[in-house]
Amino acid sequence: MTALTVQELMTLRDELVRQLGRGVLSVKSGEEEITYASPGAMQRAIAALESRIAAMQSAPPNTFRFKISKFGDCK
Question: Is there a domain that residue 72 lies in?
Fold first, then answer.
């Protein structure tokens, strides 16, 4: 299974929010359908997705850039 991108997580979250707003506790994504036990369970799933999205958006860059000069105090 591949990791979901931020955009995919946002799409899932948006669909959950739409269904919750309609009062529907089932969400179908592709061939998979998930039915939540209660609106609270659905809200916890939304909160978990928002946490993952926030963590992925604030992840530190995986590239470092060094600024080096041959001029300085070294002799």
Answer: no
User: In this structure, is residue 70 part of a structural domain?
Assistant: no
Q: What span, in angstroms and rounded, lies between the C-alpha atoms of 9 and 46?
A: 10
Q: Which of 36, 29, 31, 35 is nearest to 15 (CA)?
A: 29
Quote the radius of gyration of the chain (alpha carbons, Å): 21
pLDDT tens across 54-65, in order?
Answer: 988 886 767 777
Q: How far is CA 8 from CA 47, 62, 65, in A?
A: 15, 21, 30
Domain-located, residue 69? no
**Residue 64: inside a domain, yes or no?**
no
pLDDT in tens, 7-65: 999 999 999 999 999 999 999 877 889 999 999 999 999 999 999 999 888 867 677 77
pTM, 2 dp: 0.72
Segments forming the whole domain that contains residue 33: 6-57
